[in-house]
Design a protein that fits this description.
Distance between the termini: 46 Å
CATH architecture: Alpha Horseshoe
Radius of gyration: 22 Å
Oligomer: single chain
Number of domains: 1
Structural class: mainly alpha
Number of helices: 18
Low-confidence stretches: 8-30
CATH topology: Serine Threonine Protein Phosphatase 5, Tetratricopeptide repeat
Mean pLDDT: 88
CATH class: Mainly Alpha
Strand content: under 5%
Helix content: 40-55%
Order of helices and strands: HHHHEHHEEHHHEHEHHEHHHHHH
Shape: globular
């Protein structure tokens, strides 16, 4: 596939290394702080975008998190142990290094659209990184030999920084620029207005994440941000430059079709789907997402580590409608923002507004899943899907949002579960990790790395916003 080969070339050209923030290789990167790279920001930008979405958000660590939040159940011969997060930790700092180059060079060259886009990617990466690990190096990171033991910034401090980064992005995207990235922007083709909407949408997501820290304040701020973001289901941030039949595709397809055949539908997914159904009704999404065995959907039990690579016991996830080679990776959608709007209004006791947003969110999520107008009407006509203002509750909102995140947004579903405890998960055998442990390489190299986070404490120590 020519387009994806071009992207890979740009990844290599952008000098993207997979190392932690304290790796010795960063000495070479930071040898001349006034001239970090001779590569044009036009060539660095697409590599950063693909690295962020393809390798970071949906990289190897995503399949572990997808299992933790029980979007799927691992039925490979080997059980999933708590992933140390090495790949995602290293990828994040590789991306942050490159976006800093774009921000610095782009500012010098008045390429403000490049700068604004890079800042949005920076917020996505840094926000996801801290959501996964909690405290992480930031203010002293990426200094190479100048500081081999960067301090760990608190998650609270990093969240404050996220809003500043996004505010700067919005300002820079509004400036006149000497050139628009155009085709070098693999995600939105240099559409400044759309990138501004993405920035506001991320602010809404991050504000809503603080529901346990400041219930009403976070709701008010989230609602203000939602108003400035996507206005229809046609607007979203996603990566879809895969081609059916090509050699490059969504990472999870590789694990299912070409490597381990490890994905089966989970008991939890079927439970959540069925919890909205009237007796005898089958959610039309189930027919698209899973295969039937002997005429019925059979969910696998997370945590019991029962092998079924031949998929004779449990329903596999469709490699046509879900894990197809050209399946897009969703980063931010209209339906997510509507679910945030519904939850925020509910926290503020604005029930009519909450219910209206909830209904739009469900309809948009079902449409994005491929349901027809008739199927959506049939599904939502059930009393357990759409309800009156007083009967709407947080569980309904989060469970429908959980379904909307299947299967390309497992990290967001995991964050919602850690924040709300919704939905009820099946795995009581091994437990559900509340964060990922830091890589062994980071613990060995950085004397400031927290020593109290390990494969035991990840089940009990919550990240800051989850308290």
């Amino acid at each position: 596939m020519e387009k994806f080969k071009y992207i890979i070339f740009l990844l290599i050209l952008s000098v993207t290394f997979s190392t932690s923030c304290s790796d010795d290789v960063l000495d070479e990167i930071d040898r001349d702080p006034n001239n970090p790279t001779e590569v044009s920001v036009d060539f660095i930008l697409p590599g950063v975008q693909v690295n962020c979405i393809h390798s970071f958000l949906m990289g190897a660590g995503a399949r572990y998190i997808s299992s933790y939040v029980e979007h799927h159940c691992n039925v490979h011969l080997n059980p999933y142990w708590p992933e140390r997060g090495t790949d995602q930790f290293n990828q994040a700092y590789s991306i942050l290094k490159d976006v800093n180059i774009i921000i610095e060079k782009g500012s010098e060259e008045n390429k403000w659209t490049h700068v604004g886009i890079a800042q949005v990617i920076k917020a996505i990466t840094l926000g996801t990184l801290t959501d996964i690990f909690g405290d992480v190096p930031y203010s002293e990171a990426l200094l190479g030999s100048e500081n081999r033991n960067p301090e760990y910034d608190s998650q609270e401090a990093i969240y404050s920084e996220l809003f500043l980064i996004l505010d700067d992005a919005i300002k820079n995207l509004s400036k006149e620029t000497v050139v628009n990235p155009g085709k070098y922007d693999m995600l939105l083709q240099g559409d400044k207005n759309m990138w501004v909407k993405v920035a506001w949408g991320l602010k809404a997501r991050f504000y809503n994440r603080l529901s346990n820290i400041d219930s009403s304040g976070s709701a008010t701020n989230a609602l203000l941000a939602v108003k400035n973001s996507f206005s229809s289901a046609e607007e979203c941030l996603s990566f879809s430059d895969y081609e059916n039949g090509g050699s490059d595709h969504i990472n999870l397809f590789s694990y299912q079709e070409q490597l381990e055949k490890c994905f089966a539908t989970s008991v939890t997914m079927l439970n959540v789907l069925n919890s909205f159904n009237d007796l005898g009704f089958v959610d039309p999404r189930a027919d698209r997402w899973f295969a039937k065995l002997n005429g019925e959907f059979v969910g696998a039990p997370n945590g019991e580590n029962i092998p079924d690579v031949a998929h004779n016991k449990y329903s596999p996830i469709s490699i046509v409608n879900v894990l197809s080679p050209d399946a897009p990776v969703m980063v931010l959608t209209y339906d997510e923002l509507k679910f945030i709007e519904a939850e925020a209004n509910l926290r503020l006791a604005k029930r009519p507004e909450a219910n209206a947003a909830y209904r739009k969110a469900v309809e948009a999520a079902c449409s994005r899943a491929g349901l027809t107008t008739g199927e959506i009407a049939s599904y939502t006509s059930q009393g357990t899907v759409f309800t009156d203002n007083e009967s709407l509750n947080l569980e309904m909102i989060i469970k429908q949002k959980y379904l909307s995140f299947f299967i390309s947004q497992p990290i967001e579903a995991w964050s919602d579960w850690r924040r709300t405890g919704i939905p009820s998960l099946y795995n009581t055998v091994e437990g559900i990790p509340l964060r990922l442990p830091y890589p062994n390489t980071e613990l060995a190299r950085n004397s400031n790395a927290p020593t109290d986070i390990n494969n035991v404490t990840i089940y009990t120590k919550k990240v800051w916003w989850a308290k």
